[in-house]
Automatic annotation (TrEMBL), chains A, B, C, D, E, F:
InterPro entries: Epimerase_deHydtase, NAD(P)-bd_dom_sf. Gene3D superfamilies: NAD(P)-binding Rossmann-like Domain. Belongs to the NAD(P)-dependent epimerase/dehydratase family. This is NAD-dependent epimerase/dehydratase family protein. It comes from the Bacteria. The keyword Cell inner membrane does not apply. Keywords: NAD, Oxidoreductase. Pfam families: Epimerase (PF01370). The keyword Plastid does not apply. One of its GO terms (molecular function) is oxidoreductase activity.
Amino acid sequence: MKLKKLVLTGAAGRLGSYLREPLSKMCDELLSTDISDDIGTLYPGETFVKADIAKFDEVEPLLEGADMVVHFGAIVDERPFEEMLGPNFVGSYNVWEAGYRHGVRRVVYASSIHAVGMYPKTEFIDTEVPHRPDTFYGLAKCFTEDLGRMYWEKRQMESVHLRILSAAQVTNPRALGSWLSYDDLIQLVTRAIDTPVVGFTIAYGVSNNDRAPVDNARAAFLGYRPKDNAEQFAKEILGEAEPADPMDSGTMCHGGPFASVELGQSAVKGMGIVDDRKKT
Amino acid sequence: MKLKKLVLTGAAGRLGSYLREPLSKMCDELLSTDISDDIGTLYPGETFVKADIAKFDEVEPLLEGADMVVHFGAIVDERPFEEMLGPNFVGSYNVWEAGYRHGVRRVVYASSIHAVGMYPKTEFIDTEVPHRPDTFYGLAKCFTEDLGRMYWEKRQMESVHLRILSAAQVTNPRALGSWLSYDDLIQLVTRAIDTPVVGFTIAYGVSNNDRAPVDNARAAFLGYRPKDNAEQFAKEILGEAEPADPMDSGTMCHGGPFASVELGQSAVKGMGIVDDRKKT
Amino acid sequence: MKLKKLVLTGAAGRLGSYLREPLSKMCDELLSTDISDDIGTLYPGETFVKADIAKFDEVEPLLEGADMVVHFGAIVDERPFEEMLGPNFVGSYNVWEAGYRHGVRRVVYASSIHAVGMYPKTEFIDTEVPHRPDTFYGLAKCFTEDLGRMYWEKRQMESVHLRILSAAQVTNPRALGSWLSYDDLIQLVTRAIDTPVVGFTIAYGVSNNDRAPVDNARAAFLGYRPKDNAEQFAKEILGEAEPADPMDSGTMCHGGPFASVELGQSAVKGMGIVDDRKKT
Amino acid sequence: MKLKKLVLTGAAGRLGSYLREPLSKMCDELLSTDISDDIGTLYPGETFVKADIAKFDEVEPLLEGADMVVHFGAIVDERPFEEMLGPNFVGSYNVWEAGYRHGVRRVVYASSIHAVGMYPKTEFIDTEVPHRPDTFYGLAKCFTEDLGRMYWEKRQMESVHLRILSAAQVTNPRALGSWLSYDDLIQLVTRAIDTPVVGFTIAYGVSNNDRAPVDNARAAFLGYRPKDNAEQFAKEILGEAEPADPMDSGTMCHGGPFASVELGQSAVKGMGIVDDRKKT
Amino acid sequence: MKLKKLVLTGAAGRLGSYLREPLSKMCDELLSTDISDDIGTLYPGETFVKADIAKFDEVEPLLEGADMVVHFGAIVDERPFEEMLGPNFVGSYNVWEAGYRHGVRRVVYASSIHAVGMYPKTEFIDTEVPHRPDTFYGLAKCFTEDLGRMYWEKRQMESVHLRILSAAQVTNPRALGSWLSYDDLIQLVTRAIDTPVVGFTIAYGVSNNDRAPVDNARAAFLGYRPKDNAEQFAKEILGEAEPADPMDSGTMCHGGPFASVELGQSAVKGMGIVDDRKKT
Amino acid sequence: MKLKKLVLTGAAGRLGSYLREPLSKMCDELLSTDISDDIGTLYPGETFVKADIAKFDEVEPLLEGADMVVHFGAIVDERPFEEMLGPNFVGSYNVWEAGYRHGVRRVVYASSIHAVGMYPKTEFIDTEVPHRPDTFYGLAKCFTEDLGRMYWEKRQMESVHLRILSAAQVTNPRALGSWLSYDDLIQLVTRAIDTPVVGFTIAYGVSNNDRAPVDNARAAFLGYRPKDNAEQFAKEILGEAEPADPMDSGTMCHGGPFASVELGQSAVKGMGIVDDRKKT
């Protein structure tokens, strides 16, 4: 069941850069798009169109004839609500509504742990717990998940919402549990695409870490079986770690630094995330 | 514990018109606001300021010195997303953010059954079930509930979200279960204000109908005990009713007509809701 | 919404005798049937046909043109499986299958607490707990509920399953909790008929007893609000009661004597149930 | 089923003083005991023996021939662990163990909301939630409930654990939800005695307050239906109340002042509990 | 703990043919039976008796002296109710009742996913969910599970109900999740026999597929750890698959084709199940 | 994050003897203590102080300057309540209270399956099920868990409660599910120490046995991944096992022999536990 056309938003982003190649092999045509045009060399079958996801008129034509959309385009940090409204809220609406008008079958969405980031880690949260966003960033994920559920229930348009924990290098104790390797990310996106029917499904994006703190059981039928395990980094990281304050929501909650940052202020700053974008 | 200042948004609306008088008695100053200025005579202690809830700069100054906000201002029907974005989404953000900046203690919000309208009535839904919006209108309620939860968990600003079922005359079989009388509405808003602490709380707004289909147990500490019962209208209404189609989501789901209407199109049209606004 | 035609099985039975008059008023034609023809005087609009529920060919023609069937015909005690197979198992199949072929919209079925009779009373069982039958009699109720659910999910034929606790005089301590008065039975059957859509619904048939041990919350939308309360008999009955053995499943379990009787042997014998059939 | 002999511990305490008369009417002999002998005039059929519940040898002989024990004897405030160990922990063991040796059928125990006092009121807690004690006082209640469950499961000795919320005058906002009137206390103890079988059962002791924050559903079979409602005091009490701090566990948690007091220090001091002991 | 005598029904069927050899090694005597006598060469210790499971008099004598029965005899496709009544309903009763009379300790039963086939795959169903049969075939499994639970609770006769998903070659996308290999089937039956006590237990029969959609946690104590994984076939099968319709219950529900077939009509036809019976 | 000082109670016990060496490597100073001084050679960095855990004055000074306490000191068998009161109840209080006074961050406690030993194995119990102790031994574990939860919620002192199933040789069928190897014990204690924040956490101590009957999901964030599997002993042990009685709580319940032993009487006697204390 090779797909005719896939659309990837956020293609120039860090995670998007790792998805372009595998996605290009799953379809006849991969249309990559981003607000930036720093896209490098295109893969066979790939085309690129620069577009602002927040503008319906720019997004809408891209989805013509598409089977599915892999929607990773958004601001990927906490910012004031006014800044996020366009790309992270309206952008999601644009993708679903334009997709619906063009008969797109399914959206695979980069949701986030931050939709439920205020749960303490001592709760092993599954994919049906009520939302508890930790930031405006997380609130946009809640909005999009609810939107996706509605488009499924009212319009039979499918979606898979991948609540990514932390797809970055393992540089702190939290990441021992929350790490999602690029290989596992690719597997997860692939399953979200190749599973014949998904309806409305949420799945956590996390590797096979010993300390993975979330429950993917309800998404078991997707067949996502991560291979990587951050425990390989445990000895070094824990050896250097300072004693943690159990009353700090940034340590105790699933959302990590997002759970303790002031609303509207960057939570990524200082996390030491290296831009290891895949170069093409 | 008489309050110094309360702010009521949507004061010129149908429900707002019934709240003005009782709210004016609970505080030294009631500041009523609406996008319309068809407000009639003011009650003792009441002042009115016309404002567009969708504009932060218009909303913000109104909340100075307020103890609580009763937030009922919004479009109260289904419309295209673009039309609802300002008043129903951004408007909620404006109220919470402005309230936070001014030290407002609590927001009492007119949420709606349409945040969970796609559940079938054969599920007795409590206030912790995940969102299942039936319309963009419902999606805005989901957004605001999640926003309110976040402001509680990140900023300790309280809110009570009243998921009103149908606060209108009983003219069809669904309303035998979903009716919220004006007296019960007033009791519910009063409890949401006079309960000493509420944190983040959701409560269904429904009268003591025999056929009430939702579960308020988790909000029991509010002490809301509705008095009216739509069963008084049952004989007449059921006597005239046509056989219903159990496969129609508009009949089977909690959201009623909103659950079967096309997204973006009015669900209220044809429901025969009389504008029985309380005149002052 | 007056119904054209209702069919009542088990019309000559004890409970059936109380249902004939109210049902006859809800429809143009009430077709009563039973394996016995001891039916007395017919009510206006009522006709009677003697038939063996266990024989498809006898049941099938009766349902022609019917809107709904109220299915109370069965052996109402524990007996060897071989004796119950026809009336209590095959009989249910016959009603649903014949109903389906004739376009019947809904079956209202006399199920029983004995479908879940092995739960201890210290569990407040709702209508979604897995089956735990206490007798072959209860097993037939399980079978019929599962059958009804399947006809709903595969064929969109509705049913309401009334798990009656004990519709008989209050003569022992168990009945203080389990009593269903005839008036409340009539209300319950009426709601099961006049509720516009029901899908597949289970409801416990019990009066408003202080000691009622079961949870009807999921069926709340039916609007069943029983009026009678067996507590009026408590003083006399408890005054005479012997100390009970907490290890006896007949005392501790919801099923009462059925929970302790040997499979296949009468559990009604010795319960002192008076045949107070309503005479016409 | 009049009982031969009942034993009441804590008979000279505030709650005990209200129970002596009704208990004396339910049995041939009521043996009242307390560490204090300030017992006043005895009721017909009542005898009194002074005893220290913490001493097995003093308790044990009292239970000879008893059908049931109503165990209310304990320190009823928070104190250092060392002080509570004897009366509140060992005392409970003494009652159950001595009862077992004498063939006592059932213990009715004054447990407390403080066994679960750290739950926030926004959780409507039922009687199966895990323990979350707020004080050593509450911890003793947890200990006794677990002990009672074990004696039921290992030795078939029944018990009912009455988690009393606040059986005192309504003098603050919390009590609007937590009040247990003396009449309702008597009804609750009566049901715990006259229900034929109870196994191991927990029930909350709270009146029919509009704002009652706990769920007695699992104990429904006891038939406890409280009559009093603290809402009669709401207007006056809320009118005088200061704004509350939602981050204060003493306001937000079920345990009230016990939830915020330092372990080992009196939580009752300053609550204004009047000693309105029933005089005989 | 080698068993003296095991009885295997359905021994000439496809699954039975794989069980005969391993079962023959677990006991002194394996009595195999089937309505067909196409049984091939017997294994050491095996005897064969042709019998119709629907006839009590043919089944009953076979169970004399048996420790356990492995009950796989039934029609293994959907057929009209009248055809299934004997072998699939009455047959189960015959096995349990005859077993009870002969003191058989345990029945290991070939139940099926079709007892709960109407659940959507987006629900990760455990072994305690209420029944939702998809066919008369599934309804017979529900009946037998309830029967087995009753024989355990009333008569202390144990049973394990193996809800087999699809024990056939992997030829379609559904089977990537539902496949049960013959080796894993044998392991599962072995555990159901060798576990010292089982009471009443349900376990899903599925291999260690990446996409296995059901939850065996409650049966964990059996120690069933499947080894095979259908993912080895994924690439080829998904490559050839047509896009699926998410609104088709045959695709979306656990029951697969059984969930969409008309009641009473073969669901196996066209599934391409090869008769790879093990030849002896 | 090497710790400065760890305290190990019960250091001369069977499990303690295996913990001393690994613990000594995790900190600058390991202070081992026991009521027995049969401690053998000390490890580098280890000191030993003989003390009676039941005496506050002996325990208190040991905890000065400690980061964490690993609390394994207790009677490890069932005994009369009076004998257990000191070491198993008061001893726990002493550790927590002394720890609190000295600013100890965390207690890692040897809890036990016997806190929930009366659950049948057919329930896959997680770490949030209510207590169901099987012995006074188990009751002390319940007491300590509740105590630990209170110190966390009232005083922000962390604890991890390891509900050990059976850390002894595999000599009977129950141990095929309940075995905890010494290596896995060490891993579990290590995780309980090196996880940055734990709040109040319960985890089952069991190896990666095929037949492990308990659910550690809620403690997933600890990253405990046991390596050993008792299934290696299954063939031999099951081959020799006698048929078991499913009505015997000692066979059917998680607590094993503790679930059937008379309260106060040794349950370990006759279990064939070899004292394979690690010699130093």
